[in-house]
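Standup notes, structure subgroup. Blocker cleared on the gamma-amino-butanoic acid input:
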Amino acid sequence: NIDKLLYTDLLPFDITGGPETREFLNRVADISTDFVEKTFDRGCKILDFHQPEQLKEVLDLEIPADPLPLDQLLHDCRDALKYQVKTGHPRFMNQLSCGLEVISLGGEWLTAAANINMFTYEIAPVFILMEQATMRHMRKVIGYKNGDSIMAPGGSVSNLYAALAARHKMFPEYKEKGLLALKGQLVMFTSVHSHYSLKGAAASMGLGTDNLVLVPVDDKGRMIPAELDRLIEEQKSKGNLPFFVCATAGTTVMGAFDPLNPIADICEKHKLWFHVDAAWGGGVLLSRNTKHKMAGVERSNSLTWNPHKLMGVLLQCSTVHFQEDGLLISCNQMCADYLFQQDKPYDVTYDTGDKVIQCGRHNDIFKFWLLWRSKGDSGFEKHIDHLFDMTAYLVEKLKTNNDKFELLNDEPELTNVCFWYVPYRLRTMKPGPERHKLLGEVQPILKGRMMTAGSLMIGYQPLDHHPNFFRNIISSQAVCRDDIDFMIVEMDRLGYD
Ligand code: ABU
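Run returned:
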């Protein structure tokens, strides 16, 4: 019995502690597997919601002065998962990253055991090669002939790497000379519905958010190319220096795809860097039924693609790809001698760590590579098709229940389905500002009821002139028609009044 043992009875402290160490880790694995089983059990709640002050009362979070026994640590592990939201639950539709792919989880367990930093081939030989092979495969899917890629800590950083590379391409001296190397005010362009990370990039790169020009969108949320062209001309006429255009393939709220070919034409005309933020939508490239949504993507200079979203890889897993090889290293390399010695006993171009502004790089590849190995390209095509089939079913159900639900996007381009739930008392109310206001107030109340019941989780937000509405995301393979039927009935049960 290991219950009363301490950490000093396990490896690496007690070198005779092999069986105790194995027992402890087996028990941790059992807790994890119990959580996985509960995650997929529709009879279990998605969450046991507590307000922060209540949660502080039920959890013992204090750091003790002296060691705690292993049974307390195992109890802590169980408690941590007990109060955690089950994001893999088939009725969790709250974020762009939903689901729990078991193969990917297996990879993540082993990644933790390997515990390596991805900066050099010297310490991560297998995972560096794995990353290169997988990134090469992704570039082929995108349509880049050669190029380069890197895995980054999230889509926002991936977008930042693209913008940094674009500036470096235009002003290579910026790296050494900073602002003095610039010949004027740099300006970036993206749509009003793009991800807020572009604002973050403009701020952190020293442009300022005023120099991120937001291009208007059409009624489906897609960038209007003629407006982009007009705004570029406007900035040029002011003497500013446009350098970077970011199209979005899958906007965060509406799931819209900006028209890539017309935007590529404009970038070519003005000689601007063309980046595609496909953090959310990139997965559509994996199915013959959906890849047309990103027609023209091969003309981009760079592309962000987060496999932890539509592809269901465990968090986090973000990638950024470049048409031109050599730019990333030229832009970011700092040549730290203690890591990136040039006289190592192998080809040091495999030391990818100097391509990025981070030093430490988490191993996000193993869980991703293993999942793709398990499915193959054909399995991922089925994966994407399933998400779109479920989305079509949800839209059909919302349309047949149009007394209770009003769709904002009745032909969604991705798996974002945006709608209002209409409670009984508003069903006969005349459209107008008062109903508009009440509708916006109802959605957060219903969200609160879902969380208290623990039966459903769907996100909401306002957008442009629209009051709060639900944005339902299907990005989990676990979602089936019964879950969608349940959702329709449950929302009406919780929100009817
Ligand atoms: N852009 C990060 C994901 C946001 C979301 O899940 O809605």
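Discussed briefly. The pocket of gamma-amino-butanoic acid is lined by residues 95-96, 155, 195, 252 (CB under 6 Å).
Next: hand off to the docking folks.
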